[in-house]
Design brief:
alpha/beta; 5-stranded mixed beta sheet; single chain; 7-stranded mixed beta sheet
Length: 617
């Protein structure tokens, strides 16, 4: 920012954009108006885990925001059924109209009524934005028409009323109302959420992460905080063979063969045939999972031995399987493990691994999605006073930031997360350093990794029947983040000292069914992983949390499981969203209170100095 000490070079640059004092005055007026508008709505969503239909629906209903607006606007004029019909139309306009058309429920009167309802919803949602911003959000083919309709006034004279009615009549007469309704519905959803935060774990468990990333690809404004499952796929695309084996094993475990073979072109045929022959298993999926699991432990062992700084030596298992008979480990489960060289792949395993490696690093669609994660993602984000990350900030048993040796230096706290991101980005270049590629596996499964933060017991869960040995010890962070002073320590580490700052956390499912509370540390930390994926619904008792942060404050919402799009269309079923927590700000937040607002106020200060300079001339 320019200051009174003078910076003539900076003033000259400003003058290139504002050639007269009147230009400067106009821009000051514009920016001053913008910073006094209500803050846009932020939407936080975590641990999606491949559940495309549920994700699509929660994006369409904007975590219940659209239903709230429809109920607010039409509570006295439309029945409960009609309001829900309108909501379903907004969520799935093309599909809903096709169904209503088959039922002969669409005619000119329906179009006229529906268009007026949609315009009213869009008008209410657009009221917190500048006209310029709304125009940028308008679908290009209908931009002029929608702009006219949105800014129609209730007290218009007869000519204006007739003008706007004629616009709608012409749209209907020209049989373009369907496309116009689709465009209006898209605009409503666009205006309902100003910015989206995906707090990690798009991949695994559910089988449609590729469709989720396709949906996010053109989203108007978002950021992604990498989760451990995301970094695992990123590591696989970087060419980390241990990550590749983990990706395959995870998806075979949940029977998600389609995302590998159909979505990303990863052929498992050779692996299945090898597993069936080597392990004597008739089921191709089970055989492939058995074979890739042994290959996984071999490759992980190689990484652990190559990197003692990972401090994971206690996870070397294959060289002591003969000593584990007393806990039920059967030596016959490891026909390819050579006791003399237990972590060495056989010739057949090497051949399979080379082919899988080539497919993961060269697949065009996978690379597109991984590039998207790199372009929009990071280890953490500080946004409008909140600290957002998926996993943890590793600490020791005393709550002090734990140290990790990376590239010969010790890192902890914010510096650790920054270094982890630096190495993750360095792994995805044309000729990466082997050490950076290896580090991607540590980020997935290291006890001191900010994305994992627990000791994985994959071997025990696979081969040991005693479930007492399955318990995965977590970093002390997860027992200490109930304490407000501990959370403040973390916030301060990332430069956040405001009493209204929060930590937004994913990764660990909240067991609501057992009475566990997603709000920790006297409201300073929110855990928003409530079990979005179907496989977790019974464990958590709900189907996930979302967090809404608008100009009035924070609202944490719990969701019921989603049935299906078909059920939503036929019966207007919705993901019921109830507010678990509502934290209202003392004053309504304006744009001036946001990160963008602070930047705009800096620009206003610069422009005022430029105006002063012009008036001296």
């Amino acid at each position: 920012m320019y200051n009174d000490k003078g910076n003539t070079k900076y003033l000259k640059l400003l003058k290139q954009n504002y050639s007269s004092s009147q230009d400067v005055i106009r821009e000051i007026i514009n920016l001053s108006a913008i910073i006094n508008l209500p803050k846009g709505t932020e939407f936080f969503l975590s641990d999606i885990h491949g559940e495309y239909e549920a994700f699509l629906h929660i994006m369409n209903n904007c975590s219940g925001v659209i239903k709230e607006k429809v109920d607010l606007i039409f509570k006295d004029t439309l029945s409960d059924y009609d309001r829900q019909e309108l909501c379903t139309l907004i969520y799935y306009p093309r599909e809903k109209m096709a169904m209503l058309d088959e039922q002969n429920k669409i005619d000119g009167d329906w179009y006229a009524m529906t268009l007026n309802h949609l315009i009213l919803v869009a008008k209410v949602l657009s009221s917190k934005y500048t006209r310029s911003k709304v125009r940028k959000a308008l679908p290009q083919e209908y931009a002029y028409i929608i702009d006219e309709l949105l800014h129609a006034q209730e007290d218009e004279d007869a000519n204006q009323v007739r003008y706007h009615k004629q616009i709608l009549k012409t749209i209907i007469d020209l049989e373009d109302a369907d496309e116009f309704i689709i465009a209006l519905s898209a605009l409503i959803k666009r205006l309902a959420v100003d910015h989206l935060h995906i707090v990690g774990d798009v991949f695994d468990r559910g089988g449609n992460a590729d469709k989720i990333l396709d949906l996010l690809y053109d989203y108007h404004s978002l950021d992604i905080e990498w989760g451990n499952h995301d970094i695992l796929w990123m590591g696989a695309a970087c060419g980390n063979d241990a990550c590749i084996c983990n990706v395959i094993r995870n998806n075979l475990k949940y029977n998600n063969v389609e995302i590998l073979e159909n979505a990303y072109g990863i052929s498992l045929r050779q692996l299945m045939l090898f597993g069936m022959k080597t392990y004597g298993i008739d089921d191709g999926i089970k055989a492939a999972k058995t074979a890739i699991t042994v290959m996984l432990f071999k490759l992980e062992g190689q990484l652990i031995m190559a990197h003692p700084e990972y401090e994971m030596g206690d996870r070397l298992m294959l060289d002591c399987i003969d000593d584990m008979q007393d806990i039920g480990v059967d030596r016959h489960n490891f026909p390819t493990v050579d006791p003399k060289n237990p972590y060495e792949l056989t010739a057949d395993e090497n051949t399979i691994m080379r082919k899988l490696h080539r497919q993961f690093v060269s697949g065009q669609r996978l690379r597109k999605h991984i590039q998207f994660l790199y372009d929009h993602g990071s280890m953490y984000n500080v946004y409008n006073g909140n600290l957002i990350y998926h996993g943890c900030v590793p600490v020791d048993k005393n709550g002090a930031f734990d140290k990790l040796c990376i590239d010969g230096e010790l890192y902890h706290g914010k510096a650790l997360l920054d270094k982890c991101e630096e190495k993750a980005r360095a792994a995805y270049v044309d000729t990466p350093d082997r050490d950076d590629v290896d580090f991607m596996w540590f980020l997935w499964g290291g006890e001191k990794s900010p994305l994992c933060g627990r000791k994985l017991k994959t071997f025990e869960r696979e081969y040991v029947s005693d479930k007492n040995l399955w318990k995965e010890e977590s970093n002390p962070y997860y027992s200490k983040y109930y304490d407000e002073s501990f959370c403040c320590q973390i916030l301060h580490e990332f430069g956040l000292y405001d009493e209204n700052s929060h930590i937004i956390n994913g990764h660990t499912p909240v067991h609501a069914i057992e009475g566990e509370n997603p709000v920790r540390a006297n409201g300073r930390l929110f855990v928003i992983d409530g079990g979005f994926c179907r496989s977790m619904n019974k464990t958590t008792g709900i189907a996930g949390y979302t967090l809404i942060y608008n100009s009035h404050g924070l609202r944490l919402k719990a969701h019921t499981p989603f049935t299906s799009v078909e059920d939503a269309l036929i019966n207007n079923t919705d993901i019921e969203s109830s507010s678990e927590v509502e934290e209202k700000d003392k004053h309504r937040m304006l744009v001036r209170d946001t990160d963008i607002g602070k930047r705009l106020m800096g620009e206003i200060a610069d422009l005022q100095l430029l105006l002063k300079n012009y008036r001296k001339l």
